[in-house]
Amino acid sequence: MLAMNYRGPYRVRAERKAPPQIKHPGDVILRVTRSCICGSDLHLYHGLVPDTRVGMTFGHEFIGEIVEVGSSVKKLKVGDNILVPFNIACGMCSFCKQDLYSNCHESNPEATASGGFFGYAHVAGGYDGGQAEYVRVPYADVSPTIIPPDIHPEDAVLLTDAYPTGYFAAEMGGIKPGDTVVVFGAGPVGMIAAKCAWLFGAGRVIVIDHVEYRLEFVKDFAQCEAYNFRSMRDPVQFLKQQTGWYGADVCIDAVGCDASGSALQTITGKKLMLQAGAATALHWAINSVKKGGIVSIVGVYGPTDNLVPIGNVVNKGITIRANQTPVKRLLPRLIQHIRDGNIEPKKIITHRVPLEEVSDAYHIFSAKLDNCIKTILIPPSAN
Ligand SMILES: NC(=O)c1ccc[n+]([C@@H]2O[C@H](COP(=O)([O-])OP(=O)(O)OC[C@H]3O[C@@H](n4cnc5c(N)ncnc54)[C@H](O)[C@@H]3O)[C@@H](O)[C@H]2O)c1
Ligand SMILES: [Zn+2]
Ligand SMILES: [Zn+2]
């Protein structure tokens, strides 16, 4: 089959590889019809994630048609069209039982923190992902969900990660009616977080980034304010000034370890690797939230050390909430919001690219070329 193949930092290509097989009675094999490239894939592509192995197929956002089912699968059958949350969850461990599906204790042999994710290096279990013609889906009865007939396939593929994660970022913010919410990052996740902040009653939503076309897009998509941090002397001072010098009620970090904007963070986090990525946006979030406010982190950071201003967290009495998104828990609510017309996630899709061109697609998304926001990959066997 054709699959995206990781060859090392900044090098991916579409290559032939053996198709996946059922390894466990709870597996299904999916013929992928659509997959996405995510900001999380960029951390892998940029070589920032430990134990990303050559030969790995990325892709944790995908939908498809079941072509084979393991002998113990009960809820799904050949021919079903399903969306597959990016978390691989067993459904039975004590964490899954608390709806912490992204922290499953069984699906990742290195499960001290996150559970298994599709297409995300061996620190997340080493599962091949869905930027391919076929993919093996373990624990198929737990998280994978039949796509309701009234849900468009492009909305369905965004229900596997980007839309739930934006929503989750807003939910973790504990937004109260009238709150001022600042979202760092105008990528797909930040845009959806900004849009969803209104669903929780925000009174004002401000997005910060430095990519002009994304700022322009989010103003319209999320009906919010959007500012370029390159045009400010100090983003924290700007946000304080915007909020009567108190700070925002809620700050959301939708950037993660690949952040720009601070030479110190970039050199120590991305060049010398003295810390697990650049924590620039997280710094700004902690320093521009008000005393007693909430910082919600969905931006991905590597394990172990980061230079974050923990003293300010303590002295300001900030609550920090963070996790990988437990997609399964949120799906019913998110599908209802689409049906109610509150959000149309597929509006953020700007590029629809044949899987054969995956190398160019990564380059365009990574370098923010061609007004790219969200890219869908279409395998040759999809139609
Ligand atoms: N927690 C989860 O479950 C989960 C799920 C999906 C994605 N993520 C993470 O969310 C983050 C965003 O994902 P995405 O797909 O939107 O990625 P993306 O790369 O498309 O967007 C990130 C945006 O942040 C901007 N940015 C860079 N430095 C900044 C700074 N200092 N301040 C403000 N903006 C800055 C970039 O210009 C870019 O537009 C990534 O870290 C990704 O790994 C987490
Ligand atoms: Zn993703
Ligand atoms: Zn589990």
Description:
- Helix content is 27%, strand content 23%.
- Strands 3, 4, 5, 8, 9, 16 and 17 form a 7-stranded mixed beta sheet that branches. A 6-stranded parallel beta sheet has the order 12-11-10-13-14-15, with helices on both faces.
- The chain folds into 2 domains: 2-161 and 328-382, Alpha-Beta Complex (Quinone Oxidoreductase, Chain A, domain 1), CATH 3.90.180.10; 162-322, NAD(P)-binding Rossmann-like Domain (Rossmann fold, 3-Layer(aba) Sandwich).
- The longest helix has 13 residues, at 327-339.
- With 383 residues, the protein is of the alpha/beta class.
- The protein contains 12 helices and 17 strands.
- It binds nicotinamide-adenine-dinucleotide and zinc ion (2 copies).
- One zinc ion binds at residues 89-90, 92-93, 95-96, 104-106.
List the domain count as a whole number. 2
Q: Calculate the terminal CA-CA distance, rounded to whole Å.
A: 15 Å
Could you tell me the strand content as a percent range?
Answer: 15-25%
User: What low-confidence regions span 5 or more consecutive residues with pLDDT below 50?
Assistant: none
* CATH level-four homologous superfamily name of the largest domain: Medium-chain alcohol dehydrogenases, catalytic domain
Structural class: alpha/beta
Helix tally? 12
The quaternary state of the protein chains shown equals: single chain
CATH class of the largest domain: Alpha Beta
Order of helices and strands: EEEHEEEHEEEHHEHEHEHEHHEHEHEHE
Which compounds are bound in this model?
Answer: nicotinamide-adenine-dinucleotide, zinc ion
Q: Which architecture of the largest domain per CATH?
A: Alpha-Beta Complex
The overall pLDDT, averaged over residues, is 96
Overall 3D shape = globular
The total strand number stands at 17
CATH third-tier fold name of the largest domain: Quinone Oxidoreductase, Chain A, domain 1
